[in-house]
Amino acid sequence: MAIVLIGLSWGAVYVPAGRGDAEAMQAIAKSIGWAVPSSAPCDGTWMGVSCNEIGRVTSIVVTHAGLHGVLNGSDLGKLTFLSNLDLSFNGLIGHLPLLPTPHQHLRNIDLSSNSLTRILGGFFAALPALEAIALDNNDMLLLWDQRDLVTCSALRSFSANNASVYDNFPNFFGDVALFPALARNRMSGAVSTGFGANSNIKYLDVGGQHNDRDKITGCLDLFIPDMVNLVEAHLDHSGFFGPLPDVTKLVNLRVFDASYNDLCGHPKFAPGTAVTLDGNPNVGFAC
After folding, report:
1. Which helix (H) or strand (E) holds 256?
2. Strand, coil or helix: 24
3. Would you give the DSSP letter of residue 249?
4. Could you tell me the end-to-end alpha-carbon distance of the chain, in angstroms, rounded to an integer?
5. Distance separating alpha carbons of residues 273 and 285, to the nearest angstrom
6. Distance CA 206, CA 203 (A)
7. pLDDT tens digit sequence for 12-63
8. CA 36, 37, 41, 47 torsion: positive or negative?
9. Verdict on whether the full-model pTM lies above 0.85
């Protein structure tokens, strides 16, 4: 029988760990090559595993551990009290784990710096409590067709920098209250007029795409001025064209990098904004 230790003082009380959690954790460990010291994940010997007072696994943080394999959604879904999952900087492969039923507690996921290849449709629909997800430095040649992402009403941060994303810019992100970080991928296509208008988006990072032929394009003055909560915008090394946006009314804006595009016109920024416009030879001249 698996047990969990409550507290660290002399005379501490033990309670049984959930049998389902123990079996699920053992299956996960086997599938990703995790050398664990016992069969009881809540006995204090599984480094990076936290449990609650009733013996349910609540957090898994195992980074830089040389793990390799496929993370099974059926096993992960059995950890119904899990709120935090961090398996970054390992060697996980395949698609992201698709949970069979909605998970009511999983809020934070960090699977960055692995070798994951795609997100299956329905992945986000099974995560109604999700607040932050990091997928940076993976091999996701295809990422989108994930309209169910907008069902994650609590989502605040989506990061997939340098994840080999090769697809069109996901304009549906403008309908989600999150911080999209999608820099250094291979995306192309136009950012639509009104993207992120009156949204809660504070950080927009789509700069440095590694696409030699097609780039992310669009007119900045048709969407940036209406992103009323924007704090930082990183739009460098892209294909944006036309006049610089008048963002004097964006009182929260602190960083604006639109270097190496095809912009023109005179800068109009509120005082205190750090502006980078190198590589736009027509800036300072009428369009």
Report:
1. strand 255-257
2. helix
3. T
4. 74
5. 21
6. 10
7. 344 455 789 999 999 999 999 999 999 999 999 999 999 999 999 999 999 9
8. negative
9. yes
